[in-house]
Amino acid sequence: MGYDEKNCLRKGDILLRTRANTRSRWWGSGGLDLWISVKRMAILVLLGGFVGCTPPPQFRENALEWHKQARTAGLKPGESLPDHHRHDVNDVVSDWFGTPDQPSVPLVEGTEDPLMQLFSPEGLIRAAGPVVSRDEKSSSGLYRRHCSHCHGVTGDGRGPTATFLSPYPRDFRLGKFKFKSSPTGTPPTKADLKLLLQNGVPGTSMPSFRLLKDEELDALVDYVIYLSVRGMLERFLIAATRDLDEDERLVNLPKEMRYRDLPAKARMEIGVPVRSIVEPSRSVESDQSVTRSEAAESPDSKIESDEAGAESTEPLEQTTSTYDPETVEEDVTFMAEEYLLPISEKWLGILEFEAKEVDVPAWVTDRTHVERASQLEIGHQLYFGTANCVQCHGETGVGDGQTNNFDDWTNDWLKVEGINPADPEAWAEYVNAGAHPPKPILPRNLRLGVYRGGDRPIDLFRRIQYGIEGTPMPASLTLTDEQVWALVVYVQEMPFEPISRPATAKKSENQRPVR
Question: CB 3.0–4.6 Å: which of 64, 335, 338, 439 could bond 434 by disulfide?
Answer without folding.
Answer: 64
